[in-house]
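Data availability (excerpt). The following record was deposited with the supplementary files.
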Amino acid sequence: MRVAFLLVILFGALFYTYVAFFDLSFLSRTGRLGPGFFPRLIGVSAVMLIIWVIADTLRSGLNVLSDYNKWKDVVPLILLAVSYAVLLRLFGGFLATLVYLAITLALINRGKHFQNAVLSVVIPTAVYILFDKILNVNMPPAIFML
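Predicted structure:
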C-alpha cells in the first residue's frame, strides 16, 4: 500500500513539475527570476525525493501491499485533497487552507482539538504573511467573497 500511495504522490509531483516547466515562465520580461523558478525547484526536488523514498521502500523488502485496512484512512484524505482543490478556487487560498487543515487534522490527529485549531489558523496565516506580504505573491483568488 505504501508503494501505491507513493506512486500516486509521484504522479501528482510529476504533474506539478510539468505545469511549472510548461505553463510558468522562468524569467520575467526584465530578465529577473520569474514565477516559474520556485515551482520548478520544488517540483524537481519533490520528484527526486519521492523516487528515493520508493526505492528505499522497495529495497527494504517490507510487505508494503499487505494491509488493506489502511485504505480507510487514505481514501478520505484523497477526497479531502480533491475537495481542497475545489475550495481553493471557490473561496481563495487562506479560507480554503484553513478549512482543509481543520478537517484533515481532525481526522489524523484525533482528540487534540486545541492543537488542531491552533495549527489550522497559524499555518494559513503564516503562509499568507510569507507569500502575500513578504514575497509580494498573491494567494489564489476566490470566486465567492465572504
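Summary of structural features: DSSP finds four helices and no strands in the chain.
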